[in-house]
Amino acid sequence: MTLRPLVLALSLLPALAAAGPENSLRPQARQEAAVATAPEDGDPKPEIASVAKGGDAANGEDEATGSEVQSVKVSEVPLPPPVREELDLSEAEQAACLAVLDLMRVTYTVSEPVIPGDDRDCGILRPVTVTEVAPGVALSPPATLRCPAAQALALWVRDFVQPAAARLSERGALTAIRNGSDYVCRRRNNATEGKLSEHAFGNALDVMGFDFSEGPNIPVEPREAQGSMAEAFQDAVRASACMEFTTVLGPGSNAAHDNHLHLDVIRRTRGWRLCEQGPGPEG
Fold first, then answer.
1. Which among 12, 37, 156, 279 is most buried, taking Cβ atoms within 10 Å?
2. Torsions phi, psi of 218, nearest 5?
3. pTM, whole model, 2 decimals?
């Protein structure tokens, strides 16, 4: 057997190896598209994933060039106006409200705006301080309120409280309404968290009791089935309060209101009112 064909074949191997695909490309890593990361907790200011040209968005640097990452900025969502500003009356509305107080002979002074430095929502921009809610009927102590709350209080006293008090002939005329709380920047039921009370905007008053010229005062307290005129009076003024106020709470509503009537003029959808009369007698 001759060795010539084998030698010839071996001599051709380098040429065959050089005849591979001359234009083939070196494999390259696939470039992933940058995707915005949606916040899981509903934060209104989502963070956006960093984008690096030809590099890794995770490490924040372009591996090939070392260039800085290009980040997308998101503008901050503006805060709503403070609640005290949302509740503020116009000049014309305030003038009309004060005219009603003057017509009913309420004794009051126009106070300086109440704007606490440590809370963005509390306060009253056009407060009035009421000393007499009707002629001869004092607020003890005086109450600082928004004018709509003062107007509701004056109407209630004139149209309902004084006529009911006139039925208590042995006590004489109504002389004072005891004020337990008017404006104060706090949360509902004095809790450490949760929604602000309507007291925080000058929309609420806590009535602790009623004083008379001749007989004993009538404090607000649980009076289920007493069968007394004091109970009848308290029930009458409490029920009628919801004709002027949008919230009326008192004994029986919860333990926090067993010694006073909470009256406020919070705004609700479609004029809905919360008038809790407390539990009635069994049977």
1. 156
2. -120, 100
3. 0.71
